Description:
CATH architecture of the largest domain: 3-Layer(aba) Sandwich
Number of helices: 13
Strand content: 15-25%
Structural class: alpha/beta
CATH topology of the largest domain: Rossmann fold
Largest sheet: 6 strands, parallel
Bound molecules: 5'-deoxyadenosine, iron/sulfur cluster
Helix content: 25-40%
Distance between the termini: 57 Å
Strand order of the largest sheet: 2-1-3-4-5-6
Number of domains: 4
Amino acid sequence: MAVEKTFFLETFGCQMNVHDSEKVIGTLQQQGYSQVETEEAADLILYNTCSIRDKAEQKVFNRLNDTKKLLKQGKRFGVLGCVAQQEGEAIFERAPYVSLVSGSASYRKLPEMLARLEAGEKRIAGLDDRQTDETFETEFTARSNKYRGYITIIEGCDKFCAYCVVPYTRGKERSRTSTSVLAEARRMAESGYTEVQLLGQNVNSYRDPEGKRSFAELLAAVAEIAGIRRVRFTTSHPRDFTQDIVDVIDAVPALCNHVHLPVQSGSTSTLKRMQREYTREQYLERIGWIKQSQRPISITTDIIVGFPGETVAEFEETLSLLETVQFDAVFAFKYSPRPNTPALVMIDAIPDEEKGKRLQALLDRQREWQRANYTKRIGQIVEVAVEGHNAQRGQVNGRTSENITLNFAPSGPILPAPGSYAQVEVTQSFPNSLVGRAV
Ligand code: 5AD
Ligand code: SF4
């Protein structure tokens, strides 16, 4: 009888990594592995890593060493994802018990790499260079949610923002054909999915290799599949954000009321040093298109504070942009120097303490703007996708089309099932969530 092969996989980082892990898990299962919940129970321990900020590489090595000390001999370790691609074979030197190192652009070779691992090879590296044209498509995706699922439509990045590791860790920009995206979305709808989230580092830079559909046309085509009630897409890049994206949201009800459009800074001079390829005015023009929509499209963003050379006046331009736009959520980070990036050679003279102060000031102001904006939603009737329950409180948890968390009291003793949709009146608001009752 064959010996059971087990693996443990922990994921760090963005939605792309979460979805990559679903594909990796499906591939491992297809190769006869079963997933276990603890490192102790696993033969093969995998970390899917992120290197977007902080001392990510150091954290991965600390984690590997701590785990290694706790465990019995004989386990194999693998490092996947962005730290794997960034550090490459140096990982074998720093953590000699690691036998597999693979960046995301090499996952299509996982079956072959696993076979070599099983044959006893000690150092297997999947480190495709930036130039690969291949995408990782598999029909064996092990999605963790039964109703809401991701589909990658474009991998990699060609934008080279001065602060960012992604072009180096995820390879060049390459899109899947719209035919294959639509086939995957149809399969998901047939197996009960009602919400699809299209993913890409710059999702709206999508270019159909067959030339059949623009990004906006692909959005419409996914949203028109029978059974699909909600379609989201993330993350959009302002430079490639065009009016037709707003037009298609206006025209197609299943497209959600939400655009995530990272601005990074409200100062044109900082944006220039960041190599973002748009100005404050061009960003605000795109916001204007979104705000002119017939639908109440929610807008969220990412900000970096303390980028090299950011003056107090430039930082204040970011605050004024946030005040002008009135975002529904802001994800803000202190600038963190990253290996290989152009900004690494710029003088990072802003002390960490000052970066921390700017971050806190920004979050405090944003919290008050958000509090005021969310309060305006009290009394509205909204559709909520049910995600779970808090049995103790008799509360149902879900999400609005705008991607806002909404917890509500059910209309009767039977709680609506996860995956269903409810009409809810908003009765209370917090800076980051809403409360309501089913109607
Ligand atoms: N330092 C701080 N934040 C960063 N981000 C990307 N690179 C860095 C960096 N070096 C932020 C950006 C991006 C989000 C995913 O992470 O705001 O939009
Ligand atoms: Fe982290 Fe960027 Fe890699 Fe996602 S793509 S895991 S955010 S480094």
